[in-house]
Amino acid sequence: MKELQELADHLINGYADRVAAVTQDLLNKGATPQTILNDGLIAGMTVVGERMRTGEMYLPEVLQSASAMHVSLKILKPHLAKDGVESRGKIMMGTVKGDMHDIGKNLVGIMLEGAGFEVIDLGLNVQPQKFVEAIQTHQPAIIGLSAMLTTTMLNMKTAIEAIAHAGLRSKVKILIGGAPVSQKFADDIGADAYARDAVKAVDKVKELIAA
Ligand code: B12
Q1: Could you read off the pLDDT of 121-152 as tens digits, one per residue?
Q2: Full-prediction pTM beyond 0.85?
Q3: Which end of the chain has a smaller Cβ tally under 10 Å, C or N?
Q4: Lowest-pLDDT range, 16-30, 106-120, 150-164?
């Protein structure tokens, strides 16, 4: 579909208005939200990441692409998330300390809501102590930690240690995700599970809830 390529191109160029218009147009034409997400938005964001790595795109431009993605996700959200489903459990999400990437985390949250879970979003750059306090307040069944940098992924360990130190480790299951992390890293830092993407995250959450 040529509109999907257009969507990716507008996202790369950071044209939020055009991204919004093409997203809506694709939905009107019957494209599924998953196709729009994977073949338009994520395809575009992959190019942005590559250009960022090679120095062809700088932070202000990447931020424009990121906000265009936010706009599109807002349009897709009601289509990805089904309303009126009884909550299957409470999941808390947060991007760890020092990390300003929240698109992936937000997407995982949207997919979990779509699968019927209640999602409490602590946002980004979440200090370990904030995770501890939020667990005490909200008592989620699972906490999802996100990190996108090789430097900040280490703060997942710090967050898990703070949770353990507060005596809460046995009360909450910990799921981790984000581009630099892996199953091995999850094992190394004592997380309960790892998921590669938002779809796999929903499967893992269902497994953890059932366990
Ligand atoms: C957009 C972006 C930014 C934006 C973020 C805006 C925002 N609101 O999120 C801004 C401009 C702020 C930014 C800043 C920086 N960025 Co940046 N950024 C990206 C970029 C291009 C896209 C990330 C993204 O949104 N992807 C789309 C989403 C849908 O995918 P995702 O995040 O991977 O999420 C999926 C999975 O990982 C998983 N997942 C994610 N979280 C979780 C959580 C759980 C619990 C689970 C189960 C799953 C899960 O599921 C998600 C959905 O399927 C990536 C490159 C890339 N292609 O990944 C670089 C990238 C991550 N950034 C990078 C860098 C270096 C930086 C900076 C250090 C640059 C600088 N010199 O300042 C700063 C750091 C700022 C900070 N302290 O965090 C590097 C990281 C390198 C590394 N290995 O450490 C990357 C890989 C670019 C590159 N190729 O060099 N960035």
Answers
A1: 999 999 999 999 999 999 999 999 999 999 99
A2: yes
A3: C
A4: 106-120
Q: Are 201 and 175 in contact (CB under 8 A)?
A: yes
Task: Give the residue, out of 63, 74, 148, 152, with the most ligand 1 atoms within 8 A of its beta carbon, to mutate for a pocket test.
Answer: 148
- Domains of the chain in start order, with CATH, are 2-80 (1.10.1240.10), 90-210 (3.40.50.280)
C-alpha 149 – ligand 1 centre gap (Å): 7
The structure tokens listed for 168 are: 């809460």
Token pair 């990190």 is found at 147
Is 59 close to ligand 1, i.e. is its CB under 6 Å away? yes
Among protein residues, the one with the nearest Cα to ligand 1's atom 1 is 66
pLDDT at site 84: 52
Between the CA of 101 and the centroid of ligand 1 the distance, in Å, is 5
